[in-house]
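Hi F.,

I've been meaning to write this up properly since the lab meeting, where we talked about keeping a consistent format for the predictions we share between groups. The idea is simple: the sequence comes first, exactly as it goes in, then the structure tokens exactly as they come out, then a line or two of notes. No screenshots and no reformatting. I'm using this chain as the first example so we have something concrete to point to.
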Amino acid sequence: MNTKTAMITIAGRPNVGKSTLTNYLVGEKIAIVSNKPQTTRNRICGIVTRGDTQFVFVDTPGFHKAKTKLGDFMVNTVRESIADVDLTILVVEPISSVGIQEQMLLEQLKSKKSPVVLAINKIDTVEKDSLLEVIAAYSQAADFAAIIPISAKTGDGVEQLLEVCEKYAQNGPFLFDEELTTDQPERQVMAEIIREKLLWCLDREIPHGTAVEITKFSERDNGIIDLDATIYCEKASHKGIIIGKHGDMLKKISTMARSDCEKFMGTKVFLTTWVKVKENWRDSDFLVRNFGYSE
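Output, unedited:
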């Protein structure tokens, strides 16, 4: 079989639906999602193999103005991810004006001179007629290879998006095994699942100051996985909030995380969690690298 591959970056501002789109394309949850900005911190590959074509979708952090060392890493990740790919999908919301973050991303994409498809997401939240104004605004801002309205939540328009992506696939061997859906190590996926539950359960700035380290990942003879995780936060007061009264919040987070870990691994998981304080770790080059956020 003559095979083709396409390296495709998914870019956009925070909370525009990039990770939701990645998960829908892959058909399972490989990227965490929440309604808080900067949910995605690392570059995450979603692998989709259909017939003779393999798509490698690169989900990126939301493009934003960095305020910490961690933020610098995330913005650099976006810049690097739109270089040397076959196609970039710029995901935007159905708003009839081009935002500053979108303008900055478009300037960078123009300098790379690689094709860009505009995906207008969340069309399930607006009237279809209003999309004409959105299309007109972005058509004036850049020369897109295609403009496709989609809903990453319902899947509306996603098949059409894939058909456009296939046009940019290059002849060559598959980059990954056909059965794989992500290149992330299993322990990294587990850490991200736990961090997602922190984002879901905690308010304001607290979850943004957390990092998760998997300190034990072992499989028993019967397939059961023993998982130990340490949640790091930036303040002692935050530690108390994460643990909660009588440990109730940590128990809630751990129970939710264990359920998703079991779905991903396809087996029973015993999860044990601890909480420790690392003050201002987001502004420490050493700790940012130590928690896996390195170039």
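Notes:
The radius of gyration is 20 Å.
The chain has a mean pLDDT of 89.

If this format works for you, I'll send the rest the same way.

G.
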